[in-house]
Known about the structure:
Strand content: 15-25%
Distance between the termini: 17 Å
Number of domains: 1
Mean pLDDT: 96
Largest sheet: 8 strands, parallel
Oligomer: single chain
Shape: globular
CATH superfamily: Glycoside hydrolase/deacetylase
CATH topology: TIM Barrel
CATH class: Alpha Beta
Number of helices: 8
Number of strands: 10
CATH architecture: Alpha-Beta Barrel
Low-confidence stretches: none
Amino acid sequence: MTMIDLNSDLGESFGPWPMGDDDAMLALVTSANIACGFHAGDPAGILRSLRSAAERGVIVGAHIGYRDLVGFGRRNMEPSDAELFADSIYQIGALQGLAKAAGTRVAYVKPHGALYNTMAHDARQAAAVIAAIKALDPALPLMALSNAPVVAQARAQGITVICETFADRAYMADGSLVSRSRPDAVIHDPKEIAGRMLRLLREGLITAVDGTDIRLEAQSICVHGDTPAAVAIARRLRADLTEAGIKLASFIR
């Protein structure tokens, strides 16, 4: 590959409680998944992040999640179809309003945390979110876990899918992410992370925790904004990819 998008989850601070360094990350990424207030973020903080993204020319996506501020959206939940459908529209719509005020627009949708991982394999919850996107704006792409069943499910409904891989997360042999309950779920070393992503872009392969190689489709790479080394990881990854002749650019043309 000669071009790749680099994204991060931002806008997650809440009132006086900071989460990550949005300004530093926005100087490094090409797309930003902005929290919509359900798993993290308050309206004033979200608006600041949107304005910062607009100033830097970084595209933004609606980072929708379960209604779970206390659990940061990382607890498994079973909302009804009607609830998840309406909650998804509510979050995307709220971000669309804030984005317009910030001089930008919502260019895609990326579910967060437990919703993202559940949707990857749970056709019912995936269908509710896909239906919400179609009802609001069927032209909005869905960012989803590479190789997961949700990719084919969304494409079958006419939704453009951006296949995503994770720079700082470990993978199981089936292509799913290692559970955050395990100590080896998150990778912290910037050098190791950059090496993994370079191999992925050159060979299409990444090594799972059991040592097997798995093949992944990738249009975007995620670096989580809430980890302590997030900025260092994104900076090293951007530098190493650029040195290797890989251009970082948004998937929105």
